[in-house]
Structures are given as C-alpha cells and as structure tokens.
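Example 3.2
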Amino acid sequence: MRTRDLKIRELRETYPKAVILLTTTLLCHDESWDRAIEEVCRRIDDDRIRHYLYRRNGCGTPGKHRIQVEIVEEGDENAPPFYLLSFICA
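Structure, written as tokens:
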C-alpha cells in the first residue's frame, strides 16, 4: 500500500463519518497531480472519499487566486460547499 493511501486511510480512521474531498486547485499545475488523486480514490474505494475537480481545475495562472471569487464568477454549482450539501441532504 502506498504512503498516499495510508495517509487518507488514517484520516478515515480518525474521522469515520466525514466526507473527505481530495482536490488540488484552480491554479496552474501539472495534471499528474489530479491523476494521482484519482488513483488513490479508486484504490481506497470509499463512497465518502471523493476526488473533487473544479470546472476550471488547473487552468488558472500561477500565483494567488481567491477561490471564492473564481467559484462565483464561474457559477459553479458543484463547488465544494454545494457539493458537500449533496451528502448531507441525501
């Protein structure tokens, strides 16, 4: 088992009822990070551990972004706060 998996499994043991979102950022980054997160999610196979991708994931310029502003400008209804509500209200 890989170290990444172990860290996430430790989180699950500590917070057994939590919904855990694994994500990177809107900032420009190599997509290998997103592939690695997706691999971990598949291996762990837990319905309450999800890989979340922003609509414009990794498309922002390098530097600092205000994620809340990006979400509002994009009108992303699946942004983390709303995405998490889908688990609570289900």
